[in-house]
Amino acid sequence: MDSDEGMNKLVAPLPKEVFWNAHEICHVEGFWFFAHLMESIAAFRSDFEPRSDDILLTSFPKTGTTWLMALCHNILHRHDDREEEEDDVLTTVNLHEVVPTLDVFFLHDQVQDLVLNSNRSTGGRLLHTHLPYTCLPEAVRNSGCKIVHVTRNPKDTMVSMWHFYNKIFDVFPMEGAVESFCNGVLPWGPFHEHVIGYWEESKRRPDEVLFLTYEDLCRDPKKEVRKLASFLGKPFSPAGNGCEDEEVEKVLWLSSLGRLKELEVNKNVVSELTQIPNSSFFRKGTVGDWKNYLTPQMAERIDQLTQLKLQGIELSL
Ligand code: A3P
């Protein structure tokens, strides 16, 4: 059976919709996924062999994935012998190649190589997925590996997603984008159910699942980065004297949007792995940018949905 045949067999029986009038998405276990990724998703779910020291970053698209990848990478590598800035792999390789998204690229040779052969001195492998918690490979859920989830205000997520997909697909009107976001019929959606899955698991298993928000990271980056480093088993020295804060500040600077965006690799390079310009992962990075794009009615619609979905859950977004 060739790959197209295999894909057709996987996709044919699934309920389908067309996202933004152009892209086929399939419904699996309560969530929507791009049809063209179904083979990779299925392989990740059945073939991935987690290790207990793996670190799996998880996120709904456009909620701060790239930032979380950078922070974790820089926390884990902060004691490496880096004499020059050029020794930092992030100056030559985009983060999405350093920390591969397994549901999207599981079958890519580059990722297979990294997943099968990586033997890092700093501990387990740093990996990422956009899959919702309930769709993770069962082996991952039972492995005890650390999971870090990042989420973001739904209106800012929606606006960030609109910019991103408009760059890589044809431009689509905001009204339609809000409609699909609120209906939950979008890749990896519905958004709220995606978030709730990780939130509940972080409450059940706080030592193994850490839940962060983009807004907390913006509001108190030092506190959040210290929390993240401790969770990863690489704590900074306690706050108090200025020297220890320097290390935290360095990690924050190395991971900052301002720095990463200006690196040549993130300006004019199309990644061989993702096949999209590395620059598409970096835009404004502000909280509340939705105000510049959503009408009051659109904002109200998303707010009401958020209120409804998060009823009885101790989480505000
Ligand atoms: P905006 O579109 O609001 O600017 P993801 O990484 O999940 O795709 O999310 C992309 C969003 O994170 C974009 O938000 C992008 O600008 C922002 N971002 C990317 N790298 C960042 C970083 N290092 N620090 C803060 N925000 C970052």
TrEMBL record:
<comment type="similarity">
    <text>Belongs to the sulfotransferase 1 family.</text>
</comment>
<feature type="domain" description="Sulfotransferase">
    <location>
        <begin position="53"/>
        <end position="312"/>
    </location>
</feature>
<dbReference type="GO" id="GO:0008146">
    <property type="term" value="F:sulfotransferase activity"/>
</dbReference>
<dbReference type="Pfam" id="PF00685">
    <property type="entry name" value="Sulfotransfer_1"/>
</dbReference>
<protein>
    <recommendedName>
        <fullName>Sulfotransferase</fullName>
        <ecNumber>2.8.2.-</ecNumber>
    </recommendedName>
</protein>
<dbReference type="InterPro" id="IPR000863">
    <property type="entry name" value="Sulfotransferase_dom"/>
</dbReference>
<dbReference type="InterPro" id="IPR027417">
    <property type="entry name" value="P-loop_NTPase"/>
</dbReference>
<keyword id="KW-0808">Transferase</keyword>
